[in-house]
Design a protein that fits this description.
This protein has 504 residues and is an alpha/beta fold. It contains 20 helices and 14 strands. The protein has 3 domains: 179 residues, NAD(P)-binding Rossmann-like Domain (Rossmann fold); 86 residues, N-(1-d-carboxylethyl)-l-norvaline Dehydrogenase, domain 2 (Orthogonal Bundle); 101 residues, NAD(P)-binding Rossmann-like Domain (Rossmann fold, 3-Layer(aba) Sandwich), CATH 3.40.50.720. 42% of the residues lie in helices and 12% in strands. An 8-stranded mixed beta sheet has the order 3-2-1-4-5-6-7-8, with helices on both faces. A 6-stranded mixed beta sheet has the order 10-9-11-12-13-14, with helices on both faces. Strand 13, helix 15 and strand 14 form a beta-alpha-beta unit. Helix 8 crosses helix 10 and helix 18 packs across helix 19. It is elongated and about 85 Å long.
């Protein structure tokens, strides 16, 4: 196996589209002679022109010298055919995402490159093993999954197929570090790490909206202001494009043979059929061709005075909720039985407000639920039962609004924030359970590849594995949907009271 850190290494990139040109720019900026090819006439010249423009912007901002820009551009060499890649020690393929097209290219490249040169695919959805199976020497074929845009995104997933040489993945990770990126090693499974981990945020948010619990804007605001995400799930769906995200949902669901945890959204299928793809069509969950649409609340909350007194169930989160209400000047009783006509507050984990009311023997017309597991300092979530009186809801919202903004949602097992975070954690533990990547690499990959504020296992540890398990078990008991069954990785560590990063 060739040393991919040696002096004088030449890289060849096939495919001069968005990903290919970005990868070529990264390699050239790292000091490597970089050959760039594309089947379409003029595509390479266009790509180098765009790289020139991007580097020029860096110079204008003082992030690169003009000399470095000239040197980088000088290292970019257009080539017209696989035969001209003979000097390359590694070839990175970034062409159309179809198995046969990649196999045809790799078979031709094999006849020209050195016997110890490496072939790497930038595939995001195809099996590296299956791509390699079309080659005469599958042991030197791996995956280098860059993220868009490659010059800005630090993460690269390094994947070896089932027939990969033992030295291949270490060589790939060394190469990734050489070009200034952070490698994460993943086994050859559908979605690798990042696309696999992403099966929670958008798909579960779509289910929340489809069930009438909250609107897309409310879900986005909650995940940004309460959970600290940079983008809400619907903003992210519109940015990536509905057609792309739906395709990935369906692909991973099918590749895992109908695993309920990855179930696609029927709602998304209809939106794709209607051309509501997001930013690229100027309309998705939001409009992008005019003034923003008014945001109407899912639940109408009448104006009311905050209550003089309140009762709180003495359960997880009750003490913190008492602090919130007392800070607002409300006299609070926690535990025991509610007296008089005091508003009743419950803090369920994975349980809907109705079930909590029935379990505790409360009056559903004067009971509301508050999402507490994260104790987040930002926006608060208030959830009503189907028969909570409007004046009770308004009074509860008035009390909770002192100190933070409040979003009111319809009854739901798991609210919005705890439900989404629990699913993110659960799928992260499934990735660990399937030995796709190490616990630390799972968190790093998600933070760098998806820009989540924490990786899934770190989120689970922050919330408490036992709490996450309670949320999932509660949703599973309420819905009987196998989508919400907790992984054995999570269940064992919750029972033992140890970190979700604890290896077997």
């Amino acid at each position: 196996m060739i040393d991919l850190t040696r002096e004088g290494l030449t890289v060849a990139v096939f495919g001069a589209g968005t990903m290919g040109r970005g990868i070529a720019q990264v390699c050239a900026q790292a000091g490597l002679t970089t050959l760039l090819a594309d089947a379409r006439d003029g595509a390479v010249a266009e790509a180098i022109g765009q790289i020139d423009k991007a580097l020029g912007n860096q110079v204008a901002k003082g992030r690169m010298s003009e000399a470095d820009m000239r040197d980088t551009l000088a290292r970019l060499k257009p080539i017209a055919s696989p035969a001209e890649a003979a000097s390359a020690g590694i070839v990175i393929e970034a062409i159309i995402e179809t198995l046969e097209a990649k196999r045809v290219l790799f078979r031709e490249l094999e006849t020209h490159i050195a016997p110890d040169a490496v072939l790497a695919s930038n595939t995001s959805s195809l099996s590296v093993t299956e791509i390699a199976a079309g080659c005469a020497r599958p042991e030197r074929v791996g995956g280098l999954h860059f993220f868009n845009p490659p010059p800005l995104m630090r993460l690269v997933e390094a994947i070896g197929g089932l027939r990969a040489d033992a030295a291949l993945v270490p060589a790939l990770t060394a190469f990734v570090r050489r070009i200034g990126k952070h490698p994460v090693v993943a086994t050859d499974t559908p979605g690798f790490v990042v696309n696999h981990a992403g099966r929670a945020y958008g798909p579960e948010a779509l289910r929340i909206v489809a069930q009438g619990i909250a609107s897309p804007r409310e879900v986005d605001v909650l995940m940004k202001e309460a959970a600290g995400f940079r983008m809400g799930p619907f903003e992210l769906l519109d940015l990536i494009g509905g057609d792309v995200t739906h395709s990935v949902m369906v692909s991973i669901f099918e590749q895992y043979f109908g695993e309920p945890m990855y179930q696609p959204s029927a709602q998304m299928a209809v939106r794709v059929a209607g051309g509501l793809l997001g930013r690229k069509t100027k309309q998705g969950f939001y409009r992008y061709d005019g003034p923003p649409e008014p945001s109407l609340p899912t639940v109408s909350v009448p104006r009311a005075e905050k209550p003089a007194q309140a009762w709180i169930a003495d359960e997880d989160g009750g003490a913190e909720l008492q602090d919130w209400l007392e800070a607002a000047g409300v006299r609070v009783t926690r535990g025991g039985k509610p007296q008089g006509d005091a508003i009743c507050f419950v803090t369920p984990l994975g349980e809907d407000a109705t079930s909590a009311v029935v379990r505790l023997g409360l009056d559903p017309s004067r009971t509301v639920a508050v999402d507490m597991p994260g104790r987040f300092p930002g926006r608060r979530t208030l959830m009503k039962t189907p028969v909570t009186r409007p004046e009770v809801l308004g009074s509860a919202a008035a009390a909770l609004s002192e100190g933070a903004a409040v979003t009111v949602i319809n009854d739901s097992a798991g609210f919005v924030v705890q439900r989404l975070l629990a699913m993110i954690v659960n799928i992260g533990t499934r990735i660990a359970e399937l030995r796709i990547a190490s616990p630390d690499d799972i968190d790093v990959a998600v933070e760098l590849g998806l820009n989540y504020p924490k990786g899934p296992l770190a989120f689970g540890d922050m919330l408490g594995p036992a709490r996450v398990l309670a949320v999932l078990d509660g949703m599973h008991a309420m819905t009987l949907d196998p989508k919400y069954r907790a992984t054995t990785w999570l269940r064992r560590r919750a029972k033992l009271g140890v970190s979700l990063k604890t290896p077997d």
